[in-house]
Amino acid sequence: MFIALIAGGTKGHLRPAELLAAELEKKGHQTLLIGKGIKKSYLQTSISYIEVPSSNQWKKLPFTLYGALQSAYHLRRVDLVISFGSYHSVSAMLAVRWILRRQYLLYEPNVSIGKAHRLFVKGALSICSPFSQPYKNAVCIHPLTGLKPAKKPPSSLLKVGDPLRILVFGGSQGAIWLNHFFLQAVEKLRLEKEVAIIHILGKHMDRAWAFKRYQEMGVTAEVYEYVPSMDEIYSRVDVAVARAVAGTLFELLSHEIPAVLIPYPYGEKHQKENAQFAHDLGCVEYFEQDSLTVERLISSIFQVVKKASFQKARRFLQQKRRSLIEIIEDLS
Questions:
Q1: How far is CA 320 from CA 132, 311, 317, in A?
Q2: Contact (Cβ atoms closer than 8 angstroms) between residue 243 and residue 271
Q3: 78: pLDDT strictly greater than 80
Q4: Which residues are CB-contacts of 134 (< 8 A; sequence separation ≥ 6)?
Q5: CA end-to-end span of the chain, whole Å?
Q6: What CA–CA distance (Å, rounded) separates 88 from 86?
Q7: Cα–Cα distance between 86 and 36 in angstroms, integer?
Q8: What does the alpha-carbon distance between residue 91 and residue 63 come to, in Å, rounded to a whole number?
Q9: What are phi and psi of 131, to 5 degrees?
Q10: Is the alpha carbon torsion for 144, 150, 156, 159 positive or negative?
Q11: In sequence order, what DSSP letters do the residues of 80-104 get, joined into one string?
Q12: d(Cα 88, Cα 91) in Å, to the nearest integer?
């Protein structure tokens, strides 16, 4: 089959699309990635990518409709379409649903379905999500993370005197505030406990400057702009401070890493709902950005390392699910 994947904007949307594309190509399917806002530096595979205009603003509706016409041309030969959400997908999905009338699946990684995907629920063959969704055509599937849990000593077995190993990352968006805030917090945190930091900055902060700040504070740190594969990183940390992106959430749960989550405060409230879900499982603390102080962050890091339990998380991850590849193969 010729299968188009619609994604864009952030690594949270792009990463699962690339993972699926790699699996589809192994099985002999032809793939195409179409969307908006994907930087070439984000692409980790050789998948063909076509950029089309799209917007979430009514005043730019003509711009979006023009993108739909472009998308219809590029998608005219595809057999199946899979959307990964965000407003970057709207132009292409308008073409799929109303111009070409192609079969499509929606991949929804969040606790609740996004605004863009809600526009296209009715015509979808299935809404594929790791979470239970309140739709008749919803199917519970394994999340597309590409990670395999690595063996590491649980945080509860940390020896007295060992440094606390902290992972800090804000994703491809939403990292700037988190980077600056954590650098403020670590000045006080280091006075209470020896720490070793792995800090993934994203593309909007100078890596050399951040590394120098850690050196000035006498804190052991590894500082990266971006890490394409997180398996090895997850195996070396005891706790994380991060945004509540769906993919990140499943990775933390799979590797049983306690976390303090700070949901991205703008746009839809997906990340807050994701964080609340993980909090209810008993393995994370979370705070809204506006209410968080340095003192609260520090105390929460120590608290979640000591008290986090992954029993509920294990049961959640062990729930019966299908794979997205299986669903696609059933359609071919």
A1: 11, 17, 8
A2: yes
A3: yes
A4: none
A5: 7
A6: 5
A7: 10
A8: 9
A9: -105, 155
A10: negative
A11: EEEE--SGGGHHHHHIIIIII--EE
A12: 7
Domains, in order of start, for the chain: 2-140 (3.40.50.2000), 155-316 (3.40.50.2000)
Half-sphere exposure (CA, 13 Å, Cβ side) for 127?
Answer: 24
pLDDT confidence of residue 156: 46
Residues 253, 313: contact at Cβ < 8 Å? yes
Single-letter amino acid, residue 9? G
C-alpha to C-alpha distances, 31 to 14, 120, 209, 258, 292, nearest whole angstrom:
14, 21, 40, 37, 43
Closest among 96, 110, 73 to 267, alpha carbons compared: 110
Q: Are strands 164-169 and 138-140 parallel, antiparallel or unpaired?
A: unpaired
* Region for residue 85 given its phi and psi (left: phi exceeds 0; alpha: psi -120 to 50; beta: otherwise): left
Overall average pLDDT of the 289-308 stretch: 96
What is the value of pTM for the model shown? Answer: 0.88
Tens of pLDDT along 198-232?
999 987 788 999 999 999 999 999 999 888 778 88
Helix or strand (DSSP H, E) at 214: helix 207-217
Residue 222 three-state SS = strand
User: If you write DSSP's letter for every residue of 134-161 in order, what string do you get?
Assistant: SSTTEEEB-------PPP---GGGPPTT
Based on the number of CB atoms within 10 Å of its own CB, is 280 exposed (0-12), middle (13-18) or buried (19 or more)? exposed
Q: Which long-range contacts (CB under 8 A, 24 or more apart) does 183-189 make?
A: 183/210, 183/213, 184/294, 185/294, 185/297, 185/298, 186/214, 186/217, 186/219, 187/217, 188/294, 188/295, 188/298, 189/298, 189/301
